[in-house]
User: What shape does this take?
Amino acid sequence: MIGNDITHAALLLKAGEVVAIPTETVYGLAANAFNGNAVAAIYRIKNRPQFNPLIIHTNSSEKLKGWGLEIPDKMRKLMTHFSPGPVTYLIPASKQIPDIVTAGTGAVAVRIPGHQATLQLLSMLDFPLAAPSANPSGYISPTRATHVEEQLGGSIPYILDGGECKIGIESTIISFLHERPEILRHGGLSKEKIEHVIGTVIDQCILNKHANASINPLAPGMLAKHYSPKKLLLIGNIQHLLQDKNKQRVAVISFKDVFDDVPVENQFCLSVSGNLDEAAQHLFAAMRQADRLDVDCIVTEFFPDKELGRAINDRLMRAAAKE
Ligand code: TXA
Ligand code: MG
Assistant: This one.
């Protein structure tokens, strides 16, 4: 059931149920992180491999301290600027954080999401919420309550509706496990903004393009194939890709251009004005809609490799990966 009753969501979560929650990035599939059975249910519902750990969500850094977690200086600086917001911090876990949440890695990913309803919900709870994106493992993340309902509605008692996600792409993951901070996943907070506050960070995602990410993923969940539509997705110069195709039978996801001969209802131009934030916000909904059309393939292009364009390119490449 979809609704906007925060108290009801809190009661269900306290009772150990799994509830979908809105965040500014994507919808999450949430449960009490301290309740092993509730967390196990998340893995089951998503069909997620057990080796892939979960982010814990809360509304204050004080609570993190209360759970025995230590906040490194640079993380604190970032938190002052960007939390609540689309960034997740990877730090050493404490005894209180169950192994099922960390997948036994000894590290825990924490995030304060920037969404009013969910912040209010979290303020009513004395435990963190473990929450992966609310999609079946391997499919596109949901950015609207209806996306969650379509795929997981039958498996969970409640979807808290918080409207369309403002950022539209998952949080940036930054690790503080080693001497220098490392970006493990590009996401809703750009590397440029991070470096403006704490100086140069290591971009592990660049290395990932060359390494075989599915054999040795840095964030265990960063498997090469991910975020995938069911249809074939091709990335390149859209005009060239269209040349040898029946234009009635393709969907196009473009940054700012529209294309002659492709039916308008098959075209998803993400930002006519060329704004990367706006493009990110609409990307996943466009991928879902394109996936549903009666077409043979989806063609798209690389976005400018800066700011949120980095995260967009990352998701497109994973979506296009064969395995
Ligand atoms: O924006 C987001 O981050 C959304 C919303 C719901 O908060 N959540 C999200 O969760 O994207 P998920 O599970 O779909 O992606 C989390 C990523 C996975 O790649 C996982 O492997 C990585 O974070 N991760 C979580 N805990 C980790 C840990 N202890 N060590 C390394 N990677 C971790
Ligand atoms: Mg996910």
About this structure: Residues 132-133, 141 surround magnesium ion (ligand 2) (CB under 6 Å). The first strand starts at residue 2 and ends at 3.
